[in-house]
Inverse folding.
């Protein structure tokens, strides 16, 4: 029972510091490592131009003479820690720039999917009726088809509609839209589910009796209460979106080789794998797997930590 | 029960209508079909003639109805690039994809469900813990990276298995199988493992989560309170309730395998429908793209129908209804 | 050996990161064969913990920290899991609260019974089936041989609880622990299940422990009773003695808080022992903001008037109208609520009483009929300023204090929301001042304004709800089962608070409850509802002393007899 006589009122920060979620975080080494690595990646992506030894997009800094050099620790040139690719670009720099692109595309795609899904999900769940029936039918059907396949299909159709000469220029937007569109039903369904539960709770009825308009109830009362599962889904969705982008790029349907993402780098490197130039594939692949793994690990922990049943 | 099936059927028909509409619009609005058939330098008269032949001047709804009725007869037009009927191309490549999906489904379902149930029951053993940790890595590995790694290790480095292609096929009428020869199995092994790995880890994690969920329920607690043995509780009560959602998982799994077969086929140059689709996208070969769209939709509609029927068969709450 | 079970100095603790919680301390209990021991206490008293500790099924991280549990003369504390398994079911049976979830939904009840019988009695399949039929007949299920093949979802709640009891008895246990066995059931079913348990106890010379929060259950079934408060047993004895002449202060407070159906009193007495929430600092209504909208007219216009109200829900939709299954939740209901009175609606679950509350408050729209608030019709265009104005005079208190507050908002924002929305004050400072006053007025104190709902107990949350409802300066308050989720002592406090508010502010109240004694203590007039219709509408004393309708008589007959309470 709470002691009401004490006048001390904890601040938002104090409440966060005392929360079970933070406590569980501090007791989970894997969650902390995952969060740390994810943070490093995001920082590296943000500051890639400052950290990278070379600018891989600057022709003045690239020399074909330096092409296909192995990593410095495997008998290569001291200037290139992780070696160079077939065009003589420094691998470390291209990975930093590539990771930046992968993360940006992943975040943008998840944000797009989340924005669509959460908006439609809350409206569907709260207002119901025909709108709900139509939206959820579409989502149900779309959900039976795996996201990656949809992304490939939507991306393919999107590219087909673009004239050949601007296809590379707009590729990144097509990829973001394709992944975002393949993602929204998950957000919509989980948001709608949570909204249905919340909308049946009496605080919503109470807001209605007071006379608050529907939009205010959705924004002020429902939205904050349905965000928990959405947050988990968004974290795990980020990992999936990064994989999807890499896959599209690997299939040659995504980010063009002129401004490569991690997936594009692996695609290019794969052509040289048989001739023994392993580093062109290996390092971007390792970067990609570590990035996806730490995001997944963090998301996995977050799901358990936010699930009161398991705590 | 009848109403349930009828509703699902109606929904499936609706889905097919929407997908065929997308395929149709792809046909009509991407590129110029006439250009693709006769090339840039045909005369104006020749073009008009072909337009008339194809009925491109008819109203859109008429064209759509014609498109659907052609589709129902298996006529998807002629590939722009290969200049062959699309239905024939798909039929040629279908066995390769289906066999790949079949072998991968067997691997992922058996290993995934067994490991999922094991980790669900022996929650704290070190084997469970290590299976779980590695499963998270499995979920984080993109399919194409698994494929590249397996090719590098087993084909390039150890030289045990072929790195790509489909070999050792034996003809059964139009169906060419690679499952009846050693050479065939050697070539399908790497792609099948690649394709199954991601699905396997997904199944494992879903089955385990489902099992844990069931173990929290009141009826398990009540079964304990009646003194039933751990064995009866785990395998009699918990497993059975876990199996209901697992049916959905199997459906999802086969769907997922079809999806990821596109990637696996590209990595291993496996001559299936997925590889054909990717190549078609590169060349904007619209007839193949739209046919593949319809083909995938049909597959998914069938999978979902079967899943729903199985679901009803297992769960008495749907089968019998309230009295 | 007269004792079946003897517990001495039992301690159970839950080790959490916020410290060790002593859920049960120094518990001493005995149960004799053929005796029903009632273990009574309010939520959090630790009564369920004792039942779970006996059969070693404590939820993680609970553990028995000390003491002894002697069962039929042998120590069963600290046994291995395998040994406990042979005790559970065979010698000690358990009955849980919610029959909806206690049975495996995918197995026929026959299979579940046979499995348990084979395990506990070692019968072969054929004999086990015969035995299962006998057991089902024993708990009052007809056509037992046919019902064996049915799945749990094909049974009603009460029938399912009978199946659960049959399962608990399958191993011929000598002791049965029933944890709130009737809480999830309707009053009429509740009486049947209690009779069944009592009868089985006598027939088979069972020892029974009934864990409950309900004094009524204790009074109607228990031979002896142990009263628990905060993990300790404060008093043990014969039922008549404990209920009629309680010694401990807590027991006295608890019993005085139980609403009586047999007589009416003005307020509940001596309930302050339990929760220190009664430090009310009432504000001076005559001069305060809150009192400005007080309804003072001597006008006889009904506060709420309901005419020919109809509402149906679709249970099963179908394309053809004749195939649709409809439920007539409210069927041609008429009544007027006079200004300043408390009007009660009583009925069992599914009778449509809450639906009426939601119709009047505008949460549902009726199919037919008319609703007016102080003479103003409130159906039709909801944007009409006059309709809005009328609706604002009416507020509602809900049943579940755990879901009726938005957990993401602090108390200040929760209570201030309606004031800010309707701009009822001239400045934010005034709003904050008024929220503080309201919190003082309902007995929470202005200092709680920055806290969040999860920091409060159920009763405190209900006070926050009341403060929020008052913030629109309503003249009519709908209370939909406002205390049914609360412990009796807290219920008494909340009912007292509502009564005070009504007197101070001249509120008109519509009070919905399934609980006849509560209705009697709070209402001036009562409507008895059944299947969407009002079967009797009368003055409270008239209804309780001289019910006219058959159903009213039936309901009144089901009330637990509390004659023991002196």
């Amino acid at each position: 029972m709470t002691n009401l006589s004490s006048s001390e009122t904890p601040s938002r920060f104090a409440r966060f510091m005392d929360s079970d979620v933070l406590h569980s975080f501090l007791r989970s080494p894997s969650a902390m490592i995952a969060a740390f690595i994810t943070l490093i990646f995001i920082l590296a992506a943000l500051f890639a131009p400052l950290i990278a030894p070379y600018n891989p997009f600057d022709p003045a800094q690239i020399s074909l003479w330096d092409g296909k050099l192995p990593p410095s620790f495997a008998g290569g040139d001291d200037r290139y820690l992780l070696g160079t690719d077939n065009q003589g670009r420094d691998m470390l720099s291209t990975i930093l720039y590539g990771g930046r692109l992968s993360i940006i595309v992943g975040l943008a795609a998840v944000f797009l999917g989340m924005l669509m899904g959460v908006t439609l999900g809350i409206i569907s769940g709260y207002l119901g009726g025909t709108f709900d029936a139509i939206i959820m039918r579409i989502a149900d059907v779309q959900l039976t088809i795996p996201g990656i396949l949809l992304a490939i299909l939507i991306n393919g159709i999107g590219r087909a509609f673009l004239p050949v000469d601007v296809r590379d220029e707009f590729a990144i937007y097509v990829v973001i839209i394709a992944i975002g569109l393949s993602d929204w039903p998950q957000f919509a369904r989980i948001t709608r589910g949570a909204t249905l539960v919340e909308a049946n709770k009496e605080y919503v009825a109470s807001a209605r009796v007071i006379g608050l308009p529907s939009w205010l109830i959705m924004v002020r009362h429902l939205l904050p209460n349905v965000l928990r599962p959405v947050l988990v889904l968004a974290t795990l969705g980020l990992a999936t979106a990064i994989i999807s982008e890499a896959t599209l790029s690997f299939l040659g349907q995504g980010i063009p080789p002129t401004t490569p993402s991690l997936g594009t780098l692996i695609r290019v490197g794969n052509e040289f794998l048989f001739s023994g130039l392993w580093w062109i594939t290996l390092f971007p692949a390792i970067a990609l797997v570590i990035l996806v793994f730490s995001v997944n690990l963090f998301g996995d922990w977050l799901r358990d930590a936010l699930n009161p049943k398991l705590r | 029960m009848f109403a349930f099936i009828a509703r699902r059927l109606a929904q499936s028909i609706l889905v097919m209508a929407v997908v065929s509409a997308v395929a149709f619009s792809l046909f009509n609005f991407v590129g110029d079909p006439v250009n693709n058939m006769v090339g840039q330098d045909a005369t104006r008269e020749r073009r008009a003639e072909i337009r008339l032949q194809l009925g491109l001047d008819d109203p859109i709804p008429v064209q759509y109805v014609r498109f659907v009725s052609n589709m129902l007869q298996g006529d998807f037009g002629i590939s722009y690039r290969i200049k062959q009927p699309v239905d024939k191309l798909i039929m040629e490549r279908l066995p390769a994809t289906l066999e790949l999906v079949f072998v991968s489904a067997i691997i992922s379902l058996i290993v995934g469900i067994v490991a999922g149930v094991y980790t669900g029951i022996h929650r704290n053993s070190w084997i469970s813990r290590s299976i779980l940790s590695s499963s998270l890595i499995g979920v984080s590995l993109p399919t194409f990276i698994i494929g590249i790694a397996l090719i590098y290790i087993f084909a390039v480095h150890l030289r045990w298995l072929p790195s790509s292609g489909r070999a050792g096929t034996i003809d059964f009428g139009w169906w060419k199988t690679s499952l009846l020869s050693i050479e065939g199995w050697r070539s399908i092994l790497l792609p099948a493992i690649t394709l199954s790995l991601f699905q396997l880890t997904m199944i494992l994690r879903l089955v385990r989560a489902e099992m844990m969920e069931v173990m929290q329920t009141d009826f398990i607690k009540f079964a304990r309170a009646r003194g039933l043995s751990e064995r009866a509780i785990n395998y009699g009560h918990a497993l059975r309730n876990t199996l209901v959602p697992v049916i959905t998982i199997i459906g999802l799994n086969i769907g997922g395998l079809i999806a990821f077969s596109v990637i696996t086929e590209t990595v291993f140059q496996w001559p299936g429908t997925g590889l054909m689709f990717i190549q078609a996208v590169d060349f904007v070969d619209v007839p193949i793209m739209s046919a593949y769209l319809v083909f995938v939709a049909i597959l998914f509609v069938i999978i979902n129908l079967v899943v729903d029927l199985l679901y009803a068969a297992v769960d008495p709450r749907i089968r019998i209804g309230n009295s | 050996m007269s004792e079946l079970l003897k517990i001495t100095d039992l301690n159970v603790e839950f080790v959490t990161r916020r410290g060790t919680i002593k859920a049960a301390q120094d518990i001493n209990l005995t149960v004799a064969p053929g005796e029903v021991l009632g273990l009574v206490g309010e939520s959090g008293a630790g009564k369920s913990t004792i039942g779970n500790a006996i059969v070693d099924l404590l939820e993680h991280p609970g553990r028995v920290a000390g003491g002894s549990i002697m069962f039929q003369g042998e120590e069963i504390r600290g046994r291995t899991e395998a040994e406990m398994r042979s005790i559970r079911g065979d010698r000690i049976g358990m009955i849980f609260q919610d029959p909806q979830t206690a049975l495996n939904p995918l197995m026929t009840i026959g299979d579940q019974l046979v499995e348990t019988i084979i395990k506990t009695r070692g019968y072969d399949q054929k004999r086990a089936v015969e035995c299962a039929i006998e057991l089902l007949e024993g708990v009052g299920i007809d056509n037992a041989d046919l019902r064996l093949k049915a799945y749990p979802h094909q049974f009603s709640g009460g029938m399912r609880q009978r199946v659960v009891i049959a399962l608990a008895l399958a191993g011929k246990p000598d002791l049965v622990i029933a944890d709130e066995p009737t809480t999830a059931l309707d009053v009429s079913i509740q009486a049947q299940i209690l009779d069944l348990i009592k009868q089985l106890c006598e027939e088979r010379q069972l020892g029974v422990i009934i864990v409950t929060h309900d004094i009524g259950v204790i009074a109607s079934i228990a031979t002896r009773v142990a009263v628990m408060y905060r993990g300790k047993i404060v008093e043990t004895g014969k039922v008549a003695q404990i209920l009629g002449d309680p010694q401990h202060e807590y027991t006295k407070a608890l019993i005085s808080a139980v609403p009586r159906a047999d007589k009416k009193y003005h307020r509940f007495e001596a309930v302050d022992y339990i929760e220190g929430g009664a430090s009310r600092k009432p504000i001076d209504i005559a001069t305060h903001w809150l009192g400005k909208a007080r309804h003072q007219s001597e006008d006889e216009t009904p506060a709420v008037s309901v005419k020919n109200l109809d509402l149906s829900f679709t249970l099963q939709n179908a394309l053809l109208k004749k195939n649709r299954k409809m439920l007539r939740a409210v069927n041609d209901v008429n009544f007027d609520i006079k200004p300043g009175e408390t009007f009660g609606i009583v009925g069992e679950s599914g009778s449509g009483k809450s639906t009426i509350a939601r119709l009047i408050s505008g949460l549902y729209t009726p199919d037919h009929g008319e609703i007016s608030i102080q003479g103003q019709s409130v159906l039709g265009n909801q944007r009409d300023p006059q309709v809005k104005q009328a609706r604002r005079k009416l507020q509602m208190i809900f049943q579940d204090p755990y879901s009726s507050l938005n957990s993401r908002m602090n108390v200040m924002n929760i209570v201030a929301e309606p004031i800010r929305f309707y701009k009822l004050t001239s400045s934010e400072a005034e709003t904050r001042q008024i929220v503080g006053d309201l919190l003082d007025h309902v007995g929470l104190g202005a200092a709680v304004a920055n806290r969040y709902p999860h920091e409060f107990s159920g009763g405190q949350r209900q006070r926050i709800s009341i403060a929020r409802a008052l913030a629109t300066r309503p003249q009519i308050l709908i209370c939909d089962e406002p205390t049914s989720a609360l412990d009796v002592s807290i219920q008494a406090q909340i009912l007292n608070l509502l009564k005070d508010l009504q007197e101070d502010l001249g509120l008109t109240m519509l009070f919905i409850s399934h609980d006849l004694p509560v209705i009697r203590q709070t209402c001036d007039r009562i409507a008895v509802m059944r299947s969407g219709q009002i079967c009797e509408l009368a003055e409270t004393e008239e209804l309780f002393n001289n019910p006219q309708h058959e159903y009213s008589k039936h309901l009144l007959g089901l009330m637990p007899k509390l004659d023991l309470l002196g």
Observations:
- DSSP finds 13 helices and two strands in chain B.
- The mean pLDDT of chain B is 82.
- The radius of gyration of chain B is 24 Å.
- The first strand of chain B starts at residue 170 and ends at 172.
